[in-house]
Amino acid sequence: MGHRDPDMVREGDAQHCAGEAPDMRALLKANARYRHIIGNTPAIIYSSVPSGDFRLTFVSENASRVLGYEPQEMLDDPNFWFNHIHPDDTANIFSSLAMLFVEDQKIYEYRFRASDGHYLWMHDTLRLIRDAAGTPLEVIGLMTDISGRKELEDALQRQTEEQGKLIEQLGMAQAQLMQSEKLASIGQLAAGVAHEINNPIGFVAANLNTLGNYVATLLEGIKLYQCVVGGALPASLAQAELQGFERRADLQYLSQDVTELLSESNEGLQRVKNIVQSLKDFSRTGESNWQMADLHRGLDSTLNIANNELKYKVSVVKQYGELPMIRCLASELNQVFMNLLVNAAQAISDKGVVTLRTERVGQRVAISISDTGHGIAPEHINRIFEPFFTTKPVGSGTGLGLSLSYGIIKKHGGDIRVSSAPGRGTTFRIELPIDPAGTPNQEGTTGEAS
């Protein structure tokens, strides 16, 4: 090769340096810019070796702002990352960290100890970087402080738990209100039930007194016949005594009356038994589970209990269709029937008719209770299912009967509707699924004026 002119060499070098200098300055400027951006991001960016203890090889400068540690301090300790994870969270991380080499990415949420000793919740995304041959080179991580979010989640969790307790308390309160309303209904009808029981008990007691007298007469006759048969009386005297006894005892009438008294007494006791059974059917004591029940039996038992409320001014017409047994809480449905029947009776001022209709509609059953009473005013019809709303005078109603009835029907997955007009009476129509477990709960219209 030939020698080069030194001046030419110096000039060429100068041109070369002059050409390279702007590129270096741009590189330094870009590097400073990147460090500024990384150092001021909300997340800590770091890298670590892809094996062993995951020793940190780079930590962004904002670690000092977020955690209180200088990046160099974190780099100097080969176990820094593991040693600062909360003990309760390490097991979950250690058990799955190996999957990073299979999935190439893992996301964790764990508590990390800051320099002041308290723990911060961190959201950490680990990404495995490989070379062109697939060999792991390093792990890049992105740690974000989510302590604020966790506090909100904890607050929401506590609020949810408190709401759950409140809902449970409201459920208990509703159950107590329903029981109170049931007791109020029973209390309201107690005098009538007592009257219904007293009537048969009264004539059964009177019949037993008469039967006691008849028994005494018959025992007297038996003794007389024993004396005659035994020869204790002379034949002439015995005949006169027997004729006298037959005239006093009037055995033909006694025989007929005893039969009638026994029949009446049996009928009266059967009436008492029916009332007691109706009370048991109405309350379904001890039955708190969903069971298959006959709605006609529930309606009849409720009618027996409410009979004294109805019989003096209401004619009850039954138009029962063919109904299958349905799965329900029978005592609660009986409470609904009681509320509607009592309301129907109270809506009739003098004389009227209450009609009970039942029918099957596909996979549902329908029960209608209609009265010929004074009806419901249009301005009230959309409010009748509101708790504590009542049009009755103060002290005459709690305003809970229809509200609780609405809740019971909805719990069964059914609908309850009302149609009414002043002076034309009211009809409540209830529709219930045969099996609520297989029927989605459907929203029903609470009222519609006819």
Give the SSE map.
Layout: H1 6-39, E1 44-48, E2 56-59, H2 63-66, H3 71-76, H4 80-83, H5 87-96, H6 100-103, E3 105-113, E4 119-130, E5 136-145, H7 147-230, H8 235-249, H9 251-283, E6 291-293, H10 295-305, H11 307-310, E7 314-319, E8 326-328, H12 330-347, E9 352-361, E10 364-371, H13 378-381, H14 401-411, E11 415-421, E12 425-433
Parallel strand pairs: 7-9
Antiparallel strand pairs: 1-2, 1-5, 3-4, 4-5, 6-8, 9-10, 10-12, 11-12
Helix pairs in contact: 7-8, 7-9, 9-10, 10-12, 12-14
Describe this structure as you would to a colleague.
With 450 residues, this protein is an alpha+beta fold. It contains 14 helices and 12 strands. The strands form 3 sheets. The protein has a 5-stranded antiparallel beta sheet with strand order 2-1-5-4-3, sandwiched between helices. Strands 7-9-10-12-11 form a 5-stranded mixed beta sheet, with helices on one face. A hairpin with a 5-residue loop joins β4 and β5. Residues 1-18 and 441-450 have low confidence and may be disordered.
